[in-house]
Structure formats: C-alpha cells, structure tokens
Write a structure and sequence with these properties.
There is one protein chain. This protein is mainly β. It folds into 2 domains: about 150 residues, no CATH class; about 110 residues, Cyclophilin (Beta Barrel). Helix content is about 10%, strand content about 30%. The protein contains 3 helices and 20 strands. A 7-stranded mixed barrel has the order 12-19-16-17-14-13-20. Strands 7-6-9-4-1-11 form a 6-stranded antiparallel β-sheet, with no helix packed on it. β6 and β7 form a beta hairpin. It starts with 5 loop residues before the first strand and ends with a strand.
C-alpha cells in the first residue's frame, strides 16, 4: 500500500488534460496563459474539496473518463458540464464533495449539455509544474501530456482545512449561448453592417473546435479590402476573422499573436460559458 494517494487513469474519453488556472505573464515569450477553459467550474470544484482555487484538476471533454483511487481514500468533486458520476455501483451527485475509498473506480458519463467537466481531488494533482503552472497547453506542448490509459496522477499531501459546504448546485447551461462582446479593435477592417451581422447571426459551433479556438459556421463576414494586417497581440476571447469570413473565438490555448483582424472580443466573464459550447450548438454575440 502506497503512503500517498494517486489517481490511475483508466479511460480518458475524447480528451482529458491536467489544468489549473494557467501560466499568465509569459505572452512576451510566445506562451499563452492556457489553464482551465471553464475557470469558474475548476474554481468551484477546488472549493468543494477544500483546495486553493488554483489547484490542478482534470478537464474532461465530452465525458467517458474513468480513474481508480490508489493508496488512500480521496475526497473529490465533479463540476462543469453535467454528466452521470458513478463510484462502483453508486450514482453520486455533481457539485458536491464526494468521499471515495481506496481502489474505488470513479466514472464520468457523457454530459447532457455542455462540453467540459472538471474533476478536483483534495490536495490537488501534484504533477510537475512548468513556468509555474501544471496546465497542459495543447498548442505549445508545455506542461504534462494529455492523459492516457495507465497514467498515475499523484495527489498532494498538504494539510488543508475541511471544505465548509456540502453542495453547490449549478444551473443548466442555456440551449443557445449568448456572449457579450466589446467591438474592436479592428472592426474598421470590415464592411458596413459586419458588426450588426456578427451580433444578429445565430452562429453554429463547428466540429473543428478545441482548446485553441471555437470555430463558427454561418454567413461569412465581409472585409472592406484585401490588405494584410501586420501580426499583433491576441488575447483570450478575441474573435479573429480569417479571409474566409467565418469567426474564430480564441480559447485558453490561443496563439499570442495573429495576423487576421479581430472584429470584437468576448467579455472575460462570458468565456466560461464559451468553453461549454459544443459542436452543433448555436452561439450568439451581444455588443455591450
């Protein structure tokens, strides 16, 4: 029997990665902030198990994840996209601290709505940090590899105060997501009416969507001319429009520079909602 605890990954589903709140402050080196796509859900999961909000957990895309508790009992919480949570033959609640004995297998089903589910364990995942973060950056390759079958994730042993809540129920996400945006800085690169079109269209989330960006399908936005924009800084939430005219909303692992014009930027507070947009879903923008 091991002295410390760990989670042994048995299944990953479509994609499972280790994420914390990211590695801000390195854009000048070409490194994006990365971190959890839905930061509010990771923060909540950590609070439920008594961790600091910045502790590393698992981000699971479209469910199908399973892990075994190794070594010692664990306290975990599951938040984000709503899914079935099973421990052996028990059906457990989301958004609540869960007590799991050693050798228990925890399984997350496919979510009813939303895209990303978060798993936190008391003590946090104690994988190696890179530039101050344990996050997997899928664009740069920094941080731990995407999780695979058989990977063991060590759990931290720091003494923590017990969580002060026993459940924090969350609302179901809306069927159609509406994201607030600030127009610009390059809206002048687009034809008259393009901003109105951006905010009046029901854009469909493309299957070609990942942690780098949410690609949208709909009537292309028209530019004023054929000029080229010099490469400039990009932030999370930038709505970049390539030559084809279909917008891309930059996510957690976005490039730090880009050469296509940004017509608007999604409000910081709405990016957690954006992170739960799943392929085929309708997404709308509202100018502030």
């Amino acid at each position: 029997m091991r002295d410390s605890g760990a989670l042994e990954v048995l299944r990953t589903g479509a994609l499972a990665t280790v994420q914390d709140l990211g590695r801000p402050g390195y854009a000048h080196l070409g490194v994006s902030g990365s971190g959890a796509a839905d930061r509010g859900s990771l923060r909540l999961a950590n609070r439920l198990v008594g961790n600091p909000e910045s502790a590393a957990g698992v981000e699971v895309v479209l469910g199908g994840f399973a892990a075994r508790v190794l070594g010692r009992p664990a306290v975990v919480a599951v938040t984000g996209a709503r899914c079935s949570v099973r421990a052996g033959d028990r059906l457990l609640a989301m958004d609540s601290p869960l007590q799991l004995s050693a050798d228990t297998v925890l399984e997350l089903g496919a979510p009813e709505a939303g895209l990303r589910t978060y798993l936190a364990v008391r003590g946090g995942l104690d994988v190696a940090a890179v530039l101050g973060s344990r996050s997997t950056d899928t664009l740069s390759g920094l941080g731990p590899d995407a999780l695979g079958e058989g990977v063991e994730l060590p759990v931290g042993t720091e003494e923590l105060e017990a969580p002060s809540v026993d459940i924090a129920p969350q609302p179901h996400p809306p069927a159609d997501l509406v994201l607030g945006v600030r127009v610009g800085p390059r809206d002048d690169w687009f034809a008259d009416g393009a901003v109105d079109q951006l905010c009046s269209t029901g854009w469909q989330v493309s299957s070609d969507t990942d942690r780098v960006g949410i690609r949208l399908d709909g009537e292309p936005l028209e530019r004023r001319g054929d000029g080229e924009l010099k490469s400039e800084a990009m932030v999370r939430g930038s709505i970049q429009v390539p030559r084809g005219g279909r917008p891309i909303v930059f996510g957690a692992d976005h490039p730090v520079t880009g050469g296509y014009p940004v017509i608007a930027v999604v409000d910081h507070d709405d990016m957690d909602l954006a992170a739960q947009a799943r392929p085929g879903q309708t997404l709308r923008f509202r100018a502030r």
